[in-house]
Amino acid sequence: MALPRAARTQRRTRIQEAKEEQILEAALEVFSLHGFRGATVDQIAEVAGMSKPNLLYYFRTKEAMHRALITRVLDTWLDPLREFDAEGNPVSEIRSYIRRKLEMARDFPRESRLFANEILQGAPNIEDELKGPLKSLVDEKAEVIRVWAKAGKIAKCDPYHLIFSIWSTTQHYADFDVQVRAVLGQDQAGEGRFEDAARFLEQLFLTGLHVSEQPA
Amino acid sequence: MALPRAARTQRRTRIQEAKEEQILEAALEVFSLHGFRGATVDQIAEVAGMSKPNLLYYFRTKEAMHRALITRVLDTWLDPLREFDAEGNPVSEIRSYIRRKLEMARDFPRESRLFANEILQGAPNIEDELKGPLKSLVDEKAEVIRVWAKAGKIAKCDPYHLIFSIWSTTQHYADFDVQVRAVLGQDQAGEGRFEDAARFLEQLFLTGLHVSEQPA
DNA sequence: TGATAATTTGACCGGTTGGTAAACATTACA
DNA sequence: TGTAATGTTTACCAACCGGTCAAATTATCA
User: Fold this and answer.
1) CB of B205 less than 8 A from some CB of A
2) B55 close to B64: Cβ distance less than 8 angstroms
3) Where on strand D do bases come within 7 A of a protein Cβ?
4) Inter-chain CB proximity B161 and A134 less than 8 Å
């Protein structure tokens, strides 16, 4: 019969572990580039360096691949927010969060784009996870921010929209990379744009465009 | 022979104008929801309320439809930035720009998502327009901002990244709508979230999280 | 009205896509 | 080593998809 995934033994072989990793890596490459419907199983198989039926031996359907990938990505995607520490200094916590999210946009653009693709398509496969684990985590951290604001440690503001704005500004450099590059031009093409972005965003979130510290 | 588009007369019939409008409306609906490859001509034809061959009589290929749509959307997408006035008051110009972009996200989410989809896929069809008209316009407005900063009317900052951050924060409410709704929950589901967002973004861009005006 | 051009449709086609069947190869292990 | 489970491949299929064709229908106007 040859059942593919951990069926009989419930413990995965080393070869299974390795191949599944290999497949998910390829799937990430292709899905993030073309979206779910735009990606083809043949493409993924080619990138993974194996035949299509062999790939389908490990993941029975294209959708199963996508699901496995999405759940994993969502998890690492949320890591920076989890590190958000209620006991820390508010300003430096927010600053660190921005920096971490920006580093993720720089180092894991494919993951960011995969996620963006999924949300953009209406999140058909992860609506539950958005309304469940994600919402819970955000609620928790929003409460932290609310308390900080109440204590006068940061300005009073809507914590949810604060989180949204950090997400959007940082992920922008991964999801809209083509546009950013096109606008900045060749000269600014290097990785320097991430440092510029970090500098700008830090200023934006901490003092806005308010004229204060900068002397003429 | 029956040439479809303005070929012989070069002047489009009223019926042509109407049908093409009808098709582009349907195409916007479908493309914005599923992306280029995810959308099917049959789907678009069904939404447009006509047969597939009839649709292909007006737009010879799926790509022609997409191109027509993208160029039009890019144009309206840039309108708010065009209104950015060098002679106006810096703070209120930036505030107006944010408000206009946010209104677009609220009133034309499909257009925003269509554009996001295209950029996310690497902008295969509009790279030239990004590097041409779009870059030119942004360069022009960035220069305006730079002068304002130099004159001490707003804080010194990178004008390009300022524009990026306005784009990303506002479009987020269209492109990531599903996520925003999921996180805010049902109670905040109404259109009130756009007012909250406007309030927050105004605060963010003008004074950041800096504690200043808000008394304990 | 008649004729010509514009519009619409059902039937169809070749290529692609997700997935299957079954034979073949390799590994694990008694 | 033998054998059963696991892994891999070739050949294939049915559904779908973008697009064509020729015939039918409708609008235009002399």
Assistant:
1) yes
2) no
3) 5-11, 16-23, 27-28
4) no
pLDDT in tens, chain B (216 residues): 455 544 444 445 677 889 999 999 999 999 999 999 999 999 999 999 999 999 999 999 999 999 999 999 999 999 999 999 999 999 999 999 999 999 999 999 999 999 999 999 998 888 889 999 999 999 999 999 999 999 999 999 999 999 999 999 999 999 999 999 999 998 776 779 999 999 999 999 998 777 754 443
Cβ–Cβ below 8 Å for A203 and B122: no
How many Å apart are CA B27 and CA B69, to the nearest integer? 8
Q: Which protein residue's Cα is closest to nucleotide C21 at C1'?
A: A53
Q: CA A154, A160, A166, A172: dihedral to nearest 10 degrees?
A: -160
Nearest one of B103, B119, B177, B125 to A121, comparing CA atoms: B177
Helix, strand, coil fractions of chain A, as percent rounded to 5: 75, 0, 25
Angle between helices A159-175 and A177-184 (to 10 degrees): 70
Find where tokens 């993208």 sit.
Answer: B70
Helix axes A62-83, A90-107, angle to 10 degrees: 150
0.90 exceeded by the pTM?
yes
**Cα separations in angstroms, A28 against A105, B83, B87, B123:** 15, 40, 48, 19
* CA-based nearest residue to A81, from A173, A199, A196, A164: A164
Residue B112 host element (H or E)? helix B109-120
**Helix B192-207 to helix B90-107 angle, to the nearest 10 degrees?**
150
> Nearest to residue B198, comparing CAs of B77, B100, B76?
B100
* Chain B touched by A203 (CB under 8 Å): yes
